[in-house]
Write the structure tokens for this entry.
Amino acid sequence: MAQAWKCAGLRWTGEGPVLTWVGGRGSALSRGKRVAFGVAEGGVRTCVGARGHACPVRAAVPGRSTGARCEECARLDRAHSVAADTIADDPRPYRVYLAWFGPGLVKVGITAYERGAARLLEQGAVCFSWLGRGPLMSARRTEELLRAALGVPDRIPYAHKRAVRAGLPGTEAERAAEIAELHARAVALGGWPESLTPEPFRGVDHAGVFGIEEAGRGPAAVGEVAELVAGGAIGGELVAAAGPDLHLATERGVVVLDTRLMTGWELVSAEGGPCAVPVRELKRVAGVQDGLF
């Protein structure tokens, strides 16, 4: 029987994306590499736990869940996150950023200073700029200021990000234009916390890192994996990776696999068989401009 590995998620490093496995092993991913795995017959997806602790009941979780946590573990995980505003006494410095994912898709967010650009890579930000740095609550108030005064959201659905990748502008200057204009409007606002130090605009472009800098010239993704299933398998050449998404060239065309769907499953190596998981059509979002291995 083939050895099974449990995926712990996709991590971005200075060298690129790495699939991590429970137990500490990592599989570096590079464009052109074949990615192929399957789920054993009779396999069950189980909760990944929270805050580094295993789920005490090993609860089953739905195949389409990107969180891969049961209700109780999801509650515990969020209760101790920065996003939940429950750790106001965190002494670490934070940064506020503006991130761009495609035409009309800009968000504001915060990340710990020590993490650098890791959070932006994890979210699939095509380009970004820092806006300011300071204590956690000052960063949080600045984020709220931009949401209230400029209508900038703090979340963008992954479906929207995927829908625009094939039609991104061709140059870094074009991709940075929206956040450059928004950065100028943001620094002109009154009401910034005194303890937050503004940072000048400097666009950082990830299109080359993700492999989508020439997205309009290559084959666009035609579908996305809806879920993994027991007995299913998928394999293909890695043509791009952005955030948690792997773009795989399969016999069906380029298919996007959200690696968050892999967590909680026991996975085994697979050969060159056909794609045998549910795949749904990758549709454009209404109102969004075009743009083991």
In short: The two ends are 17 Å apart (CA to CA). The first strand starts at residue 5 and ends at 13.
